[in-house]
């Protein structure tokens, strides 16, 4: 997982740039759990999560 913390128009945010899961590990809830952990981390830091397209 690669991520960044940025600043855009005086707004602090967190964004997951890319999240890649090997096919043998898909559909096991790993991605969902990882995303929830990232959202919790961002919230703890007072950051908004930026949403982007999924399933690219």
Query: What structural class results from the helix and strand content?
Result: alpha+beta
Number of domains: 1
What is the percentage of strand-forming residues?
25-35%
The global form is elongated
Describe the structure.
The chain is an alpha+beta fold. The chain has one domain. It has 1 helix and 3 strands. It has a 3-stranded mixed beta sheet with strand order 1-2-3, with helices on one face. The radius of gyration is 12 Å and the shape is elongated. The relative contact order is 0.25. The model has no long low-confidence stretch (mean pLDDT 77).
Give keywords:
alpha+beta; 3-stranded mixed beta sheet; 3 strands; 56 residues
List the helices and strands and how they pair.
Blueprint: E1 2-8, E2 11-18, H1 30-44, E3 48-49
A few lines on this structure:
The chain is α+β, with helices and mostly antiparallel strands and 56 residues long. The protein has one helix and three strands; from the N terminus they run E-E-H-E. It has one domain (2-49).
